[in-house]
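Example for tutorial group B:
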């Protein structure tokens, strides 16, 4: 037990972001944390809670009130498996501490139990919020009693155990009996493939979502057609037991829930004793092969460029050649139209090119306002979600000293990283938006205005993201996914971006609708707000951006 606790504390400390060392950084982290809580966590929790409450109230008349929250829990478990595969594989087999652990007199189950606990701790924060909000929504909708609320507490923390344990069992079986996965690179490719499968599934389901009718769905449940729940309950038996525990106050279901979780963990630890060392011994962390080159050939292949251009190409090559960075930082910039299209279809909005042309040609104020506010909202969200800037310094990781020793000024490196954070989202937004403007025959003056608003929005997010990352970058990570998912700076940047989008776009909408200002004056206000926002982050950058990097290298 002592070995387990010591290892667990070590692994958790290794994957956590380091604490800020000075008062100024601590104050900034507190402020950013408040933005994160009120800008992301609370809005998401409230939205999920309201959704579950509405589903519960709709299903009460047919006696199936628990199926709504059961559906949400199954979805959470599925996403835990999809996103947990990469985390578990890397934590069990490709972390940098493996080569130091193997010589120690540790049993395989001790290593696996500690690593699993650390991964579970790291993955549980957002799921804790989602599960809690689901239970609150269900509790309000079904008017739960005090005993039911108390019984729900155990599952709030433990629900992700079985999905992550499935990932652990799968990883040990595959690593012990196959040669399919022998490096981080292969894991990253699998993660990329899963993400694209999810996107394809989303596109395929758009037609279903468009025709989705809650009344028809309720009638189907009332008729006894619950095939989906039957299948999912076999895959995740903890979900129906947990739901029955707090929805009905069933103590036998509570004991069954504890027993199922304990059984799956026992199976995972038993397999670890049989399979873990077989899969991990002799494993290399990368499948790249160093090629020897003749010094003359190497020198002749080199080309001289300016420091800024060379640093820019270094950043681009890392982003493109690393599967995790390519998927999460580059490809995401070009996938946003799928989600916009899906949302429009779900809301039963018909998208007709001729109708849009007609409305814009006749100076319809609603369509002009939609384009005006829409381009700002999309640009801000896309630039924030890709985490290009909010991970710009953290991506350096253990090579952070490279920024110190190369003969390139910090200010130049900063500007190059910022430019990269502007370039890809700008291309991702404008490559779709400009052709749409041309097809709808929007006047060139309006296109120029929309382009300006987009670039100003992206520039603001890029400067803000890298400034936030400079305050306390996450430089200690074992794999690229950890650099992204375990970095709170991305969360902080996204929270501020969402809050900014809500204030500007929703505020602009109500200002236009409740006053007599013209669409041109509304556009002018947006330009001034974005100019002021950019000015603020530029002042912050000039004042303490480079200083943050200089102080960080001393820690």
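The residue assignment follows.
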């Amino acid at each position: 037990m002592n070995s387990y606790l010591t290892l667990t504390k070590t692994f958790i400390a290794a994957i956590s972001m380091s604490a800020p060392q000075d008062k100024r950084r601590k104050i900034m982290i507190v402020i950013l944390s408040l933005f994160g809580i009120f800008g992301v966590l609370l809005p998401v929790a409230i939205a999920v809670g309201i959704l579950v409450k509405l589903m519960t109230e709709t299903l009460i008349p047919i006696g199936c009130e628990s199926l709504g929250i059961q559906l949400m829990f199954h979805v959470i478990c599925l996403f835990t498996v999809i996103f947990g595969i990469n985390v578990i594989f890397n934590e069990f087999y490709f972390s940098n501490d493996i080569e130091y652990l193997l010589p120690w007199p540790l049993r395989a189950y001790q290593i696996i139990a500690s690593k699993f606990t650390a991964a579970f701790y790291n993955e549980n924060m957002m799921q804790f919020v989602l599960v809690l909000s689901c239970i609150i929504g269900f509790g309000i909708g079904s008017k739960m009693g005090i005993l039911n609320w108390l019984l729900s507490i155990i599952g709030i923390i433990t629900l992700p155990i079985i999905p992550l344990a499935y990932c652990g069992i799968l990883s040990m079986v595959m690593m012990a009996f196959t040669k399919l996965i022998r490096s981080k690179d292969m894991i990253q490719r699998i993660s990329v493939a899963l993400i694209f499968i999810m996107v394809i599934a989303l596109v395929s389901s758009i037609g279903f979502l468009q025709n989705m009718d809650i009344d028809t769905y309720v009638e189907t449940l009332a008729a006894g057609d619950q095939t989906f729940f039957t299948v999912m309950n076999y895959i995740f038996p903890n979900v129906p037991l947990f739901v029955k525990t707090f929805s009905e106050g069933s103590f036998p279901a509570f004991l069954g829930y504890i027993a199922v979780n304990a059984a799956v963990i026992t199976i995972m630890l038993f397999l670890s004793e049989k399979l873990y060392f077989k899969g991990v011994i002799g494993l290399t962390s990368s499948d790249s092969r160093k090629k020897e080159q003749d010094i003359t050939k190497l020198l002749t292949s080199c080309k001289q460029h300016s420091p800024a251009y060379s640093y820019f190409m270094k950043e681009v090559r890392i982003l493109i050649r690393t599967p995790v960075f390519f998927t999460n930082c580059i490809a995401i910039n070009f996938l946003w139209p799928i989600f916009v299209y899906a949302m429009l279809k779900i809301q039963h909005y018909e998208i007709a090119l001729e109708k849009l042309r007609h409305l814009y040609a006749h100076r319809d104020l609603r369509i002009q306002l939609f384009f005006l506010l829409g381009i700002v909202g999309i640009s801000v969200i896309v630039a924030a979600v890709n985490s290009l800037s909010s991970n710009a310094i953290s991506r350096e990781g253990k090579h952070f000293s490279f920024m110190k020793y190369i003969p390139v000024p910090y200010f130049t490196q900063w500007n190059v990283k910022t430019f990269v954070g502007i370039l890809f989202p700008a291309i991702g937004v404008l490559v779709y938006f400009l052709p749409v403007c041309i097809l709808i025959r929007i006047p060139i003056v309006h296109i120029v205005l929309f382009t300006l608003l987009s670039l100003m929005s992206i520039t603001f997010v890029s400067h803000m993201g890298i400034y936030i990352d400079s305050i306390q970058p996450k430089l200690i990570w074992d794999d690229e996914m950890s650099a992204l998912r375990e970095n709170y700076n991305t969360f902080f940047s996204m929270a501020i971006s969402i809050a900014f989008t809500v204030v500007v776009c929703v505020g602009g909408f109500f200002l236009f609708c409740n006053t007599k200002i013209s669409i041109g004056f509304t556009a002018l206000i947006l330009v001034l707000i974005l100019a002021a926002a950019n000015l603020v982050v530029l002042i912050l950058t000039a004042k303490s951006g480079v200083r943050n990097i200089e102080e960080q290298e001393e820690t």
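Residues 147 and 249 are 7 Å apart (CA to CA). Compare this with the pattern of hydrophobic and polar residues in the output above.
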